[in-house]
Amino acid sequence: MMIWNREIEFLEPEKMRQLQLERIRGLLQYLAERSEFYRERLRSSGAGSAPEKLEDLQDLPFTRKTDLRDHYPFGLFCVPLREVVEIHASSGTTGNPTVVGYTRGDIKLWSEVMARALAIAGAEAGDVVQNAYGYGLFTGGLGIHYGALELGASVVPISSGGTKRQIKLMHDFGATVLTCTPSYALFMAEEAREMGIDPRLSPVRIGILGAEPWSAALRREIEEAWDMTALDIYGLSEVIGPGVAQECPSKNGLHIFSDVFFPEVIDPATGRWVPEGEDGELVITTLTKEAIPLLRYRTGDIVSLKSGVCPCGRTLPRISKVKGRTDDMLIIRGINVFPSQIETVLLEVEGARPHYQLMVERVRGLDTLEVQVEVGEEIFSDEIKVLQNLNRRIKKEIESVLGLVVEVKLVEPKSIERSMGKSKRVIDRREK
Ligand code: DLL
């Protein structure tokens, strides 16, 4: 198996801690010199001198998604825009998306961590990588792409969608590695069978699947459908994109690149570290990023952390598969959706009431979102044409805001359950 960075991935834990501590000190220096935002944040939090040991990091302030949004678009950048060579953005709860930028150095780092991730999964130079993550502002497509180039594999930048063509080209080009969301991998297998092609006979041996939570049961199904090894990849755009952590074939957790992304697992209520092996919220500090380095970024993802040598020999710590989120964000076909985004849209469409429910299901392996919306009495008793028209407007509006195809169902006034406390906006029927 190809190992991309043996020195780091097999580093003695004590040496790793030393490296991390040095880098954290370097980061604090960098932020003090370059970031108005962090100067203020560190000053107002009363944080003292540079940490003497890693545990001292717990006394430093967190960064949250709202900080990025509040300083939209470039307020957290630590370099002038002319040093930023690429910009990505992900959808946000309200109005502004979360914007991230990369310097040339950051792209180099991204390529390196992604090459390491691909290698950990068992890919190597000579592999044909069918990259069916979306290209565009989403970090999935380009992140995998850069890693595949660095690794020396042949990348097919097919992006997501156009499933029949995906299957034909996959077959014709002899793809050996498939990169996409787990739900899409499953859907592709079904579509292939419908085309009369047995996906098990394709040369694909590894699937590198992530960007959304998926269960062990789904892994078995995908592996069986494709006759391949399906491995989990984790990442988030704020930190870099894909390439934060990668599962190896021993399927014993995801190796997190802790030499560049320092992981903490905290109790979301107290903000303090939980004992190793216990569930908590993953917090990441980027140790060497240039454009938007982040100090103690709250990912909202619930994981546990494990140290010790992996059966594959690596000493990098491992995070568990993501077990859930601390907020109400839904991930549908890899797209992040907050119920409040939909609420915002509904409030803007005349005739729709802000009483709604989101039904999430998995149909033939693919996530679907049905938005059930109450309409006013006057409209409900109106002609069918009026209802159809309203339905279309809501659908179009949601699709243009979220970039996600949804089904809209208009329901009678008062038919959606009212609540005295927190309302249950989401009914998620996907298996966990
Ligand atoms: O989803 C980056 C990515 C692309 C990762 C391709 C893997 C593959 P965002 O769009 O910013 O970035 O969404 C980040 O997605 O906080 C998690 O909640 C969720 N997520 C990402 N990977 C996994 C995974 C990309 N393997 C958010 N399992 C994160 C569960 C995941 N959830």
Under the CATH scheme, which architecture of the largest domain would be assigned?
Answer: 3-Layer(aba) Sandwich
Q: What's the average pLDDT?
A: 92
Relative helix content:
25-40%
Shape: globular
Low-confidence stretches: none
End-to-end gap: 32 Å
Strand content: 25-35%
As a whole number of angstroms, the C-alpha radius of gyration is: 23 Å
The CATH superfamily of the largest domain is known as: ANL, N-terminal domain
The CATH class of the largest domain is identified as Alpha Beta
* Major β-sheet profile: 9 strands, mixed
Keywords:
432 residues; alpha/beta; Rossmann fold; GMP Synthetase, Chain A, domain 3; 2 domains; 9-stranded mixed β-sheet; 12 helices; binds 5'-O-[hydroxy(phenylacetyl)phosphoryl]adenosine
Structure description:
This protein has 432 residues and is α/β, with parallel strands linked by helices. The chain folds into 2 domains: 1-326, Rossmann fold; 330-428, GMP Synthetase, Chain A, domain 3 (2-Layer Sandwich), CATH 3.30.300.30. Helices cover 32% and strands 25% of the residues. A 9-stranded mixed sheet has the order 4-3-5-6-7-8-9-14-13, with helices on both faces. A 4-stranded antiparallel sheet has the order 10-11-12-15. The longest helix is centred in the first third of the chain and has 22 residues, at 13-34. The protein starts with 5 loop residues before the first helix and ends with a strand.
